[in-house]
Amino acid sequence: MEKKMKKPCMGRQKIPIAKITNKSHLQVTFSKRRTGLFKKASELTTLCGVQIGIIVFLFSPANKAFSFGHPDVDSIIHRFLSSNPQLHSGANRLIEAHRNANIRELNMELTQVVNELELERKRGKVLDEMRKASRKQCWWEAPIDELGLYELHQLRMAMEDLKTS
Known about the structure:
Keywords: DNA-binding, Nucleus, Transcription, Transcription regulation. Its main location: nucleus. This is MADS-box domain-containing protein. InterPro entries: TF_MADSbox, TF_MADSbox_sf. The chain is mainly alpha-helical. The protein has helices at about 25-50, 75-85, 90-135, 150-165; strands at about 50-55, 65-70. β1 and β2 form a beta hairpin. The radius of gyration is 32 Å and the shape is elongated. The protein starts with about 20 loop residues before the first helix and ends with a helix.
């Protein structure tokens, strides 16, 4: 009986710990590692009953901040500051940066929602115009109170024909 040789596979490989230069690889790695870090922090809070606050800044054109906190980031920072009053100035800058990042993110979301709303309004206007054009072609689809005497007479005749057939 002949033994089959296994193909060597890449599997998990050790990567060198150095700054990633490729922007897309950097973004993917950052996203995956951030998710893993926040997941571990969540597990730690569940298993050990601890309070954890993590703030991560991504130095990019957006200068985005990501945070995880249990019960929430603000209460952890407040607790930290009240137990370490000498750190207030640096921590206040950190809190302010975190809030500013959240405000920027919320403003970007608001802008996106407003743009989507404007698109929907434009679509609604187009649909209204299409409906009005359709009513001119298919007058019987219009509400009865918008029909003229001639259309009402035609509708009555069509109903009577339908009734007898």
